[in-house]
Amino acid sequence: MSYTLSPDAERRAAPRFRPTLGTICRFRDRGLIGLVWNVSATGVSMMLADPPATGEMLTAELTTEGGRAGLAVLLHVVHVKQADTGDYLVGARFDVPLSDAQMRPFLAPDAGG
User: Fold this and answer.
1) Residues 41-72 pLDDT 10s
2) What is the spatial distance between Cα 94 and Cα 113, in angstroms, rounded to a whole number?
3) Cα Rg of the chain (Å, integer)
4) Is this structure's pTM higher than 0.90?
5) Confidence class of residue 13 from pLDDT cuts 50, 70 and 90?
6) Parallel, antiparallel, or unpaired for β 43-48 and 57-64?
7) Average pLDDT, rounded, for the chain
8) Which of 2.40.10.220, 1.10.10.10, 3.10.290.10, 3.40.190.10 is the CATH number of 23-106?
9) Under 8 Å between Cβ of 73 and 95
């Protein structure tokens, strides 16, 4: 199941999918962990307590809390927005788009892909 957003809110060229429960993004450069909200072949959206700056390039790893899957990625931070909870919603673009096989371990069973 892909997320449906208004055309004005859509920033990614590829459909967004709901991640499997416990999908996280570890930022190797900063020791931070983001909870992945959605993922596409071209990028990721996540919640973080201490966000990177828009425009930053970061080395990260998409993984699951149980460590069943791990994928090194280079992220370009596209937008940062503070949520009502005080955390930050961060959108980032992958340096190289993910293949279906690379995305599959991080997708919820009913998310498609």
Assistant:
1) 999 999 999 999 999 999 999 998 777 779 99
2) 17
3) 13
4) no
5) low
6) unpaired
7) 85
8) 2.40.10.220
9) yes
